[in-house]
Design a protein that fits this description.
Number of strands: 0
Radius of gyration: 21 Å
Number of helices: 7
């Protein structure tokens, strides 16, 4: 008995759907060129490796790598954690400024947060703003406060 040869190529599967927060196409290029470049520039200016920054932000090195490469959408919480880790030694005003800059660099790709995170974020913002106001109102602080209020609306 003679057997015929059959084609045993595995069936092709459609490309898997992107994971939550994963970015593809033009949005990825936008994030890499804006947000990712900013995070990398600030990290290198602080003299940190990705692993060092990840430890300060309480995440893993691959998360920092994905953010710098524009492969995932950053959250508002991650922006705040990155700003605090990268600019803590420069004072609250510098932390707040970098947080706003990171959120603006992310643009429309910035992911919102849950109610639980929103409450925590609101407490952090209230504390930061109170500290900024108690150090004396200057035009720079007022500008940052206005930007934050616009983002809330």
């Amino acid at each position: 008995m003679r057997m015929e040869k059959r084609d045993v190529t595995p069936p092709t599967r459609p490309d898997p759907a992107p994971r939550r927060g994963e970015v593809v196409g033009a949005e990825r290029e936008h994030l890499r060129g804006g947000f990712g470049r900013l995070v990398r520039r600030e990290r290198l200016a602080a003299g940190l490796l990705q692993a060092d920054l990840a430890e300060l932000v309480v995440t893993d090195r691959t998360a920092i790598s994905r953010l710098e490469a524009g492969r995932v959408r950053p959250t508002t919480t991650m922006c705040a954690r990155l700003a605090r880790a990268l600019r803590a030694r420069h004072g609250e005003r510098a932390v707040l400024a970098l947080d706003v800059e990171l959120q603006q660099a992310a643009g429309e790709s910035l992911r919102g947060f849950t109610d639980r995170t929103r409450r925590r974020r609101d407490r952090l913002e209230a504390w930061t703003l109170a500290a900024a106001r108690s150090s004396g109102g200057d035009p720079y602080t007022d500008h940052l406060l206005n930007l934050l209020e616009q983002q809330r609306d």
